[in-house]
Amino acid sequence: xxxxFYEPEAISVNAGETIRFKIVNKGEFLHEFxxxxxxxxxxxxxxxxxxxxxxxxxxxxxxxxxxxxDHGGGKMKMAHSDPNSILLEPGKPGEIVWKxxxxxxxxxxxxxxxxxxxxxxxxxxxx
Length: 127
Ligand SMILES: [Cu+2]
Description:
Strands 1-7-6-3-4 form a 5-stranded mixed beta sheet, with helices on one face. It has a two-stranded antiparallel ribbon with strand order 2-5. The chain has 3 helices and 7 strands; from the N terminus they run βββαααββββ. The chain is an alpha+beta fold. The model has no long low-confidence stretch (mean pLDDT 91).
């Protein structure tokens, strides 16, 4: 991940395939690698915008103290322990293991405010 794009910009998978994504944030800002449909990403973008507003997310880091103080019943927190999404601070590596059960329209995307719109989204192509 870079500011604000992915390298590669698209990946090919086979239905039934399990992939271990090894991701490194080589940018200077906080980024997400999230798997989902474009509809899921747009819902997630609203959550992320709220988390930014509430100081849980900052441009370059996750504010874990603010996360813990969340009075929303941990709902927003849980949105971020989803195994289909990982948030990485600058310089940090991480991974997601995902099984692509069937061919469908999926994207990997960063839902931090403004990033998706500026091109931080990639296509998952089924072979
Ligand atoms: Cu981003």
